Amino acid sequence: MPDFEKKSEEREYTRNVGQFAKKLTQPNVGLYNHLRGISVVNGNLVNLPTNLREFIEENVSLCQPESIHICDGSEQENAQLLRLMQKNGTIEPLPKYENCWLARTNPADVARVEGKTFICTQTRNKTIPTTKDGIKGTLGNWISPNDMQEAINSRFPRCMKGRTMYVIPFSMGPVGSPLSKIGVQLTDSAYVVASMGIMTRMGNAVLETLNNNNEEFVKCLHSVGTPLNGIKSHPHWPCDPERTIILHRPKTNEIVSYGSGYGGNSLLGKKCFALRIGSTIAKREGWLAEHMLILGITNPQGQKKYIVAAFPSACGKTNLAMMNATLPGYKIECVGDDIAWMKFDKNGQLRAINPENGFFGVAPGTSYKTNPNAMETIFKNTIFTNVAKTPDGGIYWEGLEDEVPNGTVLKDWHNNDWVKGETKTPAAHPNSRFCAPAKQCPIIDPQWESPEGVPISAILFGGRRPKGVPLVYEALDWDHGVFVGASMRSEATAAAEHQSKVIMHDPFAMRPFFGYNFGHYLSHWLSMKEKSNNLPKIFHVNWFRKDNAGKFLWPGFGENSRVLDWILRRVNNDDSCAVKTPIGYVPNKTNGLNLDGLKENINLDELLDVPRDFWLQEIEEIEKYFEEQIGTDLPNEIRAHVNNLKSRLINN
Ligand code: OXD
Ligand code: MN
Asked: Is 449 in the pocket of ligand 1 (CB under 6 A)?
């Protein structure tokens, strides 16, 4: 079709949808639920608040779906979506378990795409710090308003042709909590709807809150897209990897995602809303949106405290959040495994909610040995993606070797035969996932949905550091703690498109998730100290230190309760268990860590050592990183801490 004809057809269509939109705003509009070929197959547009109806109409006009489905969040709706996906080959049942499903993605759509994720602000410096000349910035990607519009214009028109547009009203956080926020995602993926139904509170209750309070909502538009040359491979998992783009406009609380159906790219409540847009809202409103687990820990005296912890993707946040403590008398309960929204209350107590409603956990490595509570969580009402399947309709991934005999022929994540003990390629993709309801976790905290949030006593930062970084250390004060968060580094993971094993800077475990300039984010964190006389203490942990032979020095998992015990003692101002080093307080070697009953021999000298040469090099590296990446946006307090650490190391 010549271009001008295409344009005139587009104009005609826009006019039609415009009329459709106009009619929808008139009384009795239910009559028009089947208008101009766009049928509303579930729900009724007339019942929606005007701002939501306008959002839908605009994007119907842009994306031209065949039908609209307003999600109510009911069991029947979910069952209907599952049936549809089964029919289309998107999922298959896992008959070994109760209501569990396996999805296999297009192998080109398996992880978050950090390089294609952008924040849109008028000026670049609002989004990313100004880097030193010639240095490529690694703290997010900026896009101008014009380029964002261009990116949308070149991808979205008619992108939902022949498909259903689902309207997902969802709440991040318990519906109605003062700490919660509402979003509405439009998507053409039933898989996304089913997953959002697990990961968020979704459906009519949220619509009611929107209606009653006339609330603003975060506008999320998502399409799996269609490649320019049409879908050739994997028709059960449409996507457009070459043109995938994830866009955020903080000023208007908008998220626009095109081309991917998987994970953080498409479940827009998670990274896009709860972290990127969330952090910009938090900055405006004076709170914190962080990539942190939340757990409750009760000691043998019955004293309960809550802590949050920020580790980069796939560093064991889910394992820690659901840990079975090995230290007698200790109990861990899980509030959340990935994201914390935190605010100081009027008494200066930091309180946190988990904005999510489910776990989207990395499957490989999860086992009865590493995380029995996750295993108890995931065998009903769960969607697994890119894991392998056993002949009896169960799941399999690397880490479950003890569960399946050698010689068993499985189907790997590509749906090819895979022989246990023989085939050399991984059975499951390294970023394969389970998506399971949080309430199924056997150790879910009784307060996990508390609308006011749980009180936080300690903040942990951490990462995978094979060398030099002790098992645990405590920051000297709040500002120093912010410096520790800013200095975080870790081995890269499979959750994104990076190669493994490189030690990467990942400040606050937020590097891929900042919604605004990291220098300004640091100032925001520093400013929090004005809000309280009772600030949580800040710690850094590293379960992954190795000896010279490459062997882990610490057993990790449930034994990490011993580290939490030390942290609680520090929170309770026990000075007898710590010694001061140039980097902060570490457990003293005589009565620091409680090692009673630990089977392994622990080399405490190596595990807790703070090697001067290593740290002199580390601080050089951190200073270089700050100068190159944050430049003039680095707050003076953080610069002072670089110099202070240097002189403590030199004078020690
Ligand atoms: C996640 C991640 O999926 O951090 O939680 O990548
Ligand atoms: Mn995460």
From this structure: no
Q: What is the pLDDT of residues 536-546, one digit of tens each?
A: 999 999 999 99
User: How far away, in angstroms, is 32 Cα from ligand 1 center?
Assistant: 42
Alpha carbon distance 176, 172 (integer Å): 10
Q: b/e map of 438-468 (b: 16 or more CB within 10 Å)?
A: bebbebbbebbbbeebbbbbbbbbbbbbbeb
| pLDDT 10s digits, 117-173 | 999 999 999 999 999 888 999 999 999 999 999 999 999 999 999 999 999 999 999
DSSP letters along 293-330, please? EEEEEE-TT--EEEEEEE--TTSSHHHHHT----STT-
- Nearest-atom number in ligand 1 for the CA of 312 is 4
Ligand 1 centre to CA of 360 (Å) is 8
Mean pLDDT calculated for residue range 297-312:
96
Query: What residues contact residue 624 under an 8 Å CB cut-off, 6+ apart?
Result: none
Nearest to 244 by CA among 233, 255, 257: 257
Structure tokens of 539?
Answer: 């710690």
C-beta of 313 in contact with ligand 1 (< 6 A): yes
Burial 279-293 (b: 16+ CB within 10 A, else e): bbbbbeeebbbbbbb
Pairing relation of β-strands 254-258 and 331-336? unpaired
How big is the CA angle at 198 (ends 196 and 200), to the nearest 5 degrees? 60
CA–centroid distance, 474 to ligand 1, in Å, is 26
Of 200, 196, 197, 338, nearest to 261 by C-alpha is 196
What is the distance between the alpha carbons of residues 475 and 473, in angstroms, rounded to a whole number? 7
Distances in whole angstroms, Cα of residue 311 to Cα of each of 13, 225, 639: 49, 32, 23
Ligand 1 centroid distance, CA of 314 (Å): 7
Question: Cβ(86)–Cβ(191) under 8 Å?
Answer: no
558 CB near ligand 1 (under 6 Å): no
The 3 state secondary structure assigned to 354-380 is CCCCEEEEECCCCCCCCCHHHHHHCCE
List the residue whose alpha carbon is closest to atom 4 of ligand 1: 313
Q: What is the DSSP string of 145-208?
A: HHHHHHHHHTT-TTTTTTSEEEEEEEEESSTT-TT-EEEEEEES-HHHHHHHHHHSEESHHHHH
CB 314 near ligand 1, within 6 Å = no
* Residue 338, ligand 1, Cβ within 6 A: yes
Q: Which residues are designated catalytic?
A: 315
Surrounding residues of ion ligand 2, Cβ less than 5 A: 313, 338
The most confident of the ranges 20-24, 42-46, 294-298 is: 294-298
What pTM does this model have? 0.93
Regarding predicted confidence, which is higher, 279 or 1?
279
Residue 189 near residue 261 (C-beta atoms within 8 A): yes
Length of the chain measured in residues: 652
Report the nearest atom of ligand 1 relative to the CA of 493.
Answer: 6
Question: How far is Cα 44 from Cα 573, in angstroms, rounded to an integer?
Answer: 58
Place of tokens 């930062």: 461
